[in-house]
Specification:
With about 220 residues, the chain is mainly alpha-helical. The chain has 8 helices and 2 strands. It has 2 domains: about 110 residues, no CATH class; about 100 residues, no CATH class. The longest helix has about 30 residues.
C-alpha cells in the first residue's frame, strides 16, 4: 500500500529539505505565517522553530491518513479497487498544496515586502479545480467527500451530489484564481470569497437534501 504513495512521500521529503534550506538562515526571532484571513492577509504566525516543523508535521499526518485509510474506513472493502485508484492521486494533490503553502510562508518570512496574498488565492483555486475533477469518482466514505446525512444514507444521492459538487468546486476554483489575480486590485476579494463559499459549501449541501427528498418521494 505504501508504494502507491511514493510520489507524495517524495514531495514531503523534498519539501522538508527545501524548508530547511529556506528556513535555516532566518533570524531566531523570525515569525513564519501560519494563517491568512478572509481578505487574504496574514493574521497568524509562529516562531522560527515551530514554523519549520508545524506544516511538515501536519503534512506527514495527512499523508499517514491516506496510507492507513484501508484500515480505518468501514466502507473501504466495498469499493477497494476504486479507492485504490483515487487515494494516491488525492494524497498527491493535498500534500502538494500543503507543501506549497509551507514554502510560500517561508518566502513571506524571508521577504517582508511579500505578503503572498495573490499566490495563496491562486493555490487554493488550483486545489479546488483539481478536487472538483476527482469528486465524481470518489466512492462513498465517512471520511472523504461531501458528507451529509443524505449522501451517507443513500448511494444515489452520494453520486448525484458529487457530480454536482465537482462542478461547483471547479467553479469555485476559478473564482479563487480570479480573487488572486484581480480581487485585491479591484477591492472585491471579500465578495469573491463569499461567492466561493456559497458555490462550494452551501450549494452541494442543499442539493444533497433536495436530491434525497426527491428519491424519497419516488419510493427509492
Amino acid at each position: 500500500m505504501i508504494r502507491k504513495f511514493w510520489v507524495a512521500i517524495v514531495i514531503v521529503l523534498i519539501t522538508i529539505i527545501l524548508g530547511l534550506v529556506m528556513g535555516s538562515p532566518l533570524p531566531a526571532d523570525a515569525q513564519i505565517p501560519t494563517h491568512w484571513n478572509i481578505d487574504g492577509k496574514v493574521d497568524g504566525s509562529v516562531g522560527k522553530t515551530m514554523g519549520l516543523i508545524l506544516m511538515p508535521g501536519i503534512t506527514i499526518i495527512l499523508l499517514s491518513f491516506f496510507i492507513f485509510f484501508p484500515w480505518i474506513s468501514p466502507r473501504y472493502r466495498k469499493e477497494a479497487e476504486r479507492f485504490d485508484k483515487i487515494l494516491p492521486t488525492l494524497a498527491n494533490i493535498m500534500v502538494l498544496l500543503f507543501s506549497a503553502i509551507y514554502l510560500l510562508s517561508l518566502m513571506v518570512a524571508r521577504n517582508a515586502e511579500l505578503d503572498g496574498t495573490e499566490l495563496m488565492w491562486v493555490l487554493l483555486g488550483i486545489l479546488f479545480m483539481l478536487l472538483g475533477n476527482l469528486l465524481p469518482k470518489l466512492p462513498s466514505s465517512f471520511f472523504i467527500g461531501i458528507r451529509t446525512p443524505w449522501t451517507l444514507s443513500h448511494e444515489e444521492v452520494w453520486r448525484k451530489t458529487h457530480r454536482v459538487g465537482g462542478k461547483a468546486f471547479v467553479a469555485g476554483g476559478i473564482f479563487f484564481v480570479l480573487a488572486g489575480v484581480v480581487g485585491n486590485f479591484l477591492g472585491i476579494g471579500r465578495v469573491l470569497f463569499y461567492i466561493i463559499m456559497g458555490i462550494t459549501v452551501v450549494y452541494p449541501i442543499l442539493y444533497s437534501y433536495i436530491a434525497y427528498q426527491q428519491l424519497i418521494k419516488k419510493g427509492k
